[in-house]
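Box 3.1 A note on notation
Throughout this textbook, protein chains are presented in two layers. The first layer is the amino acid sequence; the second is a token string describing backbone geometry. Keep the layers aligned when reading.
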Amino acid sequence: MVLSPSLLSADFSRLGEELAELERAGLSWVHLDVMDGSFVPNITFGPPVIKRLREVSRLFFDVHLMIREPERHVQAFAAAGADMLVVHAEACLHLERTLREIQNLGLKAGVALNPATPLCAVEEVLEGLDMALIMSVNPGFGGQTFIPSSLDKVSRLRRMLQERGSKAIIQVDGGVTPENAGALVRAGAQCLVSGSSFFAFPPYAERRKAFEAAAGSDGPREVTP
């Protein structure tokens, strides 16, 4: 299990310092939620902010594009320093083409599914996929409550990936806490995103250990999609 804290819940007045604190706490990933005010209600940040953060951090930048027509912006996010771009199946007219373009730019490619979107929406792109993200809340706001049916969805996705011989990892985002981390990992999740349930409980090293203990992990390990 790898933990990818969502910067959406960090202190926006000191993002560079927050990233440094994550590194000191032993984290290797950080989740960056990009919102456009159209696909989801809120607006967050874009390539210029990510570029500045890249200059001060060695963390793996797991960039979640909650935006319409993400194919128009993948080059800008790649140039800004993203390591992985995750696009929503609901937002892409040509999903396979967009994922291939991301990989051709040298990045890892992931696809996200909203709670009401069935797994069949991504079954045709699973073989070449690096990561599949199950949204366990409706995207757009931090601090929401985990949707229990997401556990079964993770289990079914894991079986789907195994049947197709896909090496894609499963990420879960939304309402993830130490209380449900163990069940999610047992269901098949390998990467957990946590926002308010992580950043609201400093020191970060201790909070990381709490998640790892709950998930049955013996410490941070590389999860390479």
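The longest strand covers residues 29-35. The chain has eight helices and eight strands.
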